[in-house]
Amino acid sequence: MTPTLTISRLTKAFPGSAGRQRIQAVEALKQVSLTLEAGKRAALLGHNGAGKSTMMKIVLGLIPFDSGEVSVCGAHPGSPAARTRVAYLPENVAFHPALTGEEQLRHYLSLRGEDPRQAMELLARVGLTPAARRRIGTYSKGMRQRVGLAQTLIGRPRLLVLDEPTSGLDPVSRRDFYDLLDGLAAEGTAILLSSHVLTEVEARTDRILILSGGELVAEGTLADLRARAALPVSLLVRPAPGYAARLAAAFPEGSQDGDGLLRLACRQAEKLPLLARITMLGSAVADLDVIPPSLEDIYSHFSRRDGQ
């Protein structure tokens, strides 16, 4: 199956200037290559200035690139064929404040050659049915963001490009948003999502893409990146009443807090042997938590490796 998005050896630089004096060009992207299959959700991570926005603008056909190849749904980015199959949601959406949510969606549906009567169905999918006939000027930022999400669903796009899409959403709305993305992915839509909220994307994406200094320094599933980073696994062992001292003696390499909770750390390959040592203590152990490296830990590891 042909990937929905293919980027090969992509390079983009911006000319530098300081007043009348030209300075060295800024390399925004350096030989970036990746693919995104249909139905897959990829999280694009990186610090400010890493090249995320530049990559998204190139995929959308908003700016040209210097070298490399980009294929969006089998077409050149920005071409009529690509635009009909791609939808975009920016971090801060803007709509006419005098229009209602329904009127705004009917307008966009008409522009795309779709039946305007779909407006209410789209608003229902993002939880805006009760506010559909209110003016957008009365909406909160989170509600406007949901109008934007409804707009991206017009025409059943094959690729969704989302830039900080949950900005302004409350926790319940964020959960509903990712549920909606799960449904779209199940229907075959590829999703490229940029976010700084790593705890959100950790469990709701299939692949992680980490940009740093314009380079793709890491990509893969969360399990793949954990294995590559080889960061320590943490274990929290809670002793049964009266057994704190015994646990401390059995694991002198650990550290205990005032409540007796024992903290241990080990490499991935040492996890099972360490668990075996803990279980041998039997009733002396009241509870045990195994905490793998988080996406934030992994992101920091690969970014720092690149000097950030």
TrEMBL record:
Q: According to its UniProt record, which protein family does this protein belong to?
A: Belongs to the ABC transporter superfamily.
Q: Which Pfam family, just one, is annotated for this protein?
A: ABC_tran
Instruction: Specify whether Metal-binding is a keyword of the entry.
Output: no
Per UniProt, residues of the ABC transporter domain are 5-238
From the Swiss-Prot or TrEMBL record, give the protein name. Cu-processing system ATP-binding protein
What PROSITE patterns does its record include? ABC_TRANSPORTER_1 (PS00211), ABC_TRANSPORTER_2 (PS50893)
Alphabetically ordered keywords of this record: ATP-binding, Nucleotide-binding, Transport
What GO annotations for molecular function exist for this entry?
Answer: ATP binding; ATP hydrolysis activity
